[in-house]
Amino acid sequence: MITTEPYRFTGAGGMTLDGRLEKPRYGTPRAVAIFAHCFTCGKDSRAATFITRALAAQGIMVLRFDFVGLGGSAGDLSGFASQVADLEAAANALEADGHAPSLLIGHSLGGAAVIAAAGQCETVRAVATIGAPSDTDHVLTHLGDSIEEIEVEGEAVVKLAGRDFCIKKDFIEDTRGQRQEDAIRNLGKPLLILHSPTDEIVSVEHARTIYETARHPKSFIALDGASHLLTDDENAHYAADLIAAWGSRYAEGDRVEEEERPLEGVVRVTTAGGKFAQHVMTGTHDFIADEPKSYGGEDDGPTPYDLLLASLGTCTSMTMKMYADRKGMKLDKVRIELEHSRDHAKDCADCDFENGKQIQAIDRAIELEGELSDEERAKLLEIADKCPVHRTLESELHIHTTEVK
């Protein structure tokens, strides 16, 4: 239940940077995060997409954007210091829009960048990295012999990850010799380090260095069997779930003040966007009701009739279980399937109805598991008809409607 929206903002160097906001479809996000992609990857990489959407599904809004010179962002490929500055610009843009970020997540060089940027983002409360190098000079090793040409000629075309990039001298100067060790040591925020022991691009020794340099609270989790780029769906989802679970802990304190909950026994229903979606709130629970896509909805929750059937089914099962416990019956499990249908006049010989009036029926099939006698089973089926919701549905029910102003 998430939505993806375009998000453009001005980077530190004045370039327009192209991003995407992954948002919970309903309700106010309980926190905001920024995802920094790997070197030469982009906002639409597998890791960026899976992780940001996993967080959005848990109520955390996430911005993933292209650094300068990549994807939909303008300019030439930026160096490390420029990427750090653009992360700060992203945080400022979100804060100006009322979405101050509390979590930074970075993949590969993006992981190093979020560590360096975190100290300049006052609202950020925690940082997570995936396959991050412990020093920025590591990325320059991928340029190989081209470094000399770049420094002499001012630029050179270098093949990286199967693509050609024009690397300029500014990139090298902007990346070389950054004091990453100081940034790690002085982070001062909870840090989650994810790294594959078999990472072929950034060795796991970098994770060890980051972990040993950082102060607590810090955590390390091995992404056993994963590639550096998380190209395998299973490993990408695993990393996403880990960060989502860990990040949720540090998101709780940023929840925007919520609507006052209804009193016990009262259910509140509020439109939630889309054609049919409704936000259902009780004293302690929230969920979405919707219609299936075949009826024009988004299928983000049970339908009104699903809820009606669930109400009868749960009440029936609770009542039978309570009776069995009180009578010492060995009832192990109750399984109930219910179906609602209309216009059963032809099949309902024992129904009392006026001619022409639509008849509605609920078919309820009950399966009982346990060491029960025939007499006990018959009694439990009798008790099923005595559940409170069953009685309410079959009673002369009056619904009183008033407008609240």
SSE run: EEEHEHEHEHHEEHHEHEHEEEHEEHH
Supply the CATH architecture of the largest domain. Answer: 3-Layer(aba) Sandwich
How does the major sheet shape up? 8 strands, mixed
What is the total tally of β strands?
Answer: 15
Our measurement of the CA-to-CA distance between the termini, rounded to an integer number of angstroms, reads 32 Å
CATH topology name of the largest domain, in short, is: Rossmann fold
> Would you identify the regions where 5 or more consecutive residues have pLDDT less than 50?
253-257
Highest-level CATH class of the largest domain:
Alpha Beta
Determine the CATH superfamily of the largest domain: Alpha/Beta hydrolase fold, catalytic domain
Question: Largest sheet, order of strands side by side?
Answer: 1-2-4-3-5-6-9-10
The overall number of domains is 2
Structural class comes to alpha/beta
Overall pLDDT metric: 87
Oligomer: single chain
Contiguous helical run count: 12
Strand content: 15-25%
| Radius of gyration over all CA atoms, rounded | 29 Å
The helix fraction, in percent, is 25-40%
Shape descriptor: elongated
Name some characteristics of this structure.
Rossmann fold; 33% helix; Hydrolase_4; GMP Synthetase, Chain A, domain 3; 2 domains; 24% strand; 8-stranded mixed β-sheet; alpha/beta; 405 residues; elongated; hydrolase activity; 3-stranded antiparallel β-sheet; hydrolase; OsmC/Ohr_fam; Bifunctional alpha/beta hydrolase/OsmC family protein
